[in-house]
Specification:
This protein is an alpha+beta fold. The protein is built from five helices and 13 strands. The chain has one domain. The longest helix has 24 residues.
């Protein structure tokens, strides 16, 4: 009697279909671990309760971040306490704000402030957004008309930054920043908002929108894990450098498209 062949202990992982989405502002929320794992590796304290909303605090306890999907409308809240010459500030961003845009802001919270004077409008100008003053507000709009950034200074209301993205199908989000929000953080946000780089979403998580373009890519789970791990390791290395007084390395993994592509 012939013995049956033993099943192989080595299984070959199958590629999974994902989509690169442009413009990134209409890609939907994404995986919040893109934000939280980077902050955790940067030394932030995770104070979330079991089965509760995400709640994290900076190492110096001056900034708190929360993500709560259990309330309406739900979304992100980032608050900074007053210290030194910096007044208290607050940012509120909708739950459908892409995590890659959120990370533009939150990653900046872990990095030293540049000596160069920040400006929120420069990244938008570089990507050819139109900027105009209308009444008591300065408004920037993306070339495709899907995203905007405004600074309201109409009295008697307090000045505020207002941003967002939207399409005719109801996809979109809005964000507000108090005028006291550190300008380098607003600039980090607008840099991520205006970036021409697409963002990746798995099959089934692509918004139904007439305003987005998608590129189908086949990605191995090991590739996704490697990209995520590279981002976390970069955060950990930067935190170690800050704590040890060494120079701060900066590495930003870039997603590369692989496999068969099809645009719509």
């Amino acid at each position: 009697m012939k013995s049956k062949p033993r099943p192989s202990l080595h299984t070959t992982a199958q590629p999974e279909q994902h989509y690169l989405i442009h413009p990134r502002a209409l890609a939907g929320g994404g995986d919040i671990r893109h934000v939280s794992e980077f902050l955790r590796a940067s030394g932030w304290r995770d104070q979330s309760q079991r089965h509760g909303p995400l709640l994290m605090e900076s190492p110096d306890r001056t900034v708190r971040l929360s993500y709560d999907p259990y309330v309406m409308p739900g979304g992100w809240t980032i608050s900074g306490a007053a210290h030194g010459h910096q007044a208290a500030w607050n940012a509120v961003l909708g739950s459908q704000t892409p995590v890659e845009i959120i990370a533009g802001l939150t990653d900046a919270l872990t990095q030293p402030v540049s000596a160069h004077a920040p400006t929120a409008w420069a990244p938008l100008k570089q990507q050819r957004w139109s900027i105009a003053r209308r009444g008591g507000q300065l408004t920037a709009e993306s070339p495709d008309g899907t995203s905007w950034m405004q600074f309201h200074e109409d009295p008697p209301a307090s000045p505020v930054w207002w941003s967002g993205a939207g399409d005719q199908q109801g996809n979109g989000w809005t964000a507000t920043f108090t005028a006291t929000t550190p300008l380098h953080l607003v600039q980090a946000f607008t840099t991520a908002l205006a970036s021409p780089e697409p963002v990746m979403r798995p099959r089934g998580r692509v918004p139904h929108s007439m305003r987005i373009f998608t590129t189908s890519v086949s990605v191995l789970p090991s590739q996704l894990a490697a990209w995520q791990q590279a981002r976390i390791q970069a955060a950990g290395a930067a935190a170690w450098a800050r704590n040890s007084g060494a120079g701060q390395p900066r590495t930003t993994p870039r997603l590369s498209a692989a496999g068969r592509r099809a645009r719509r």
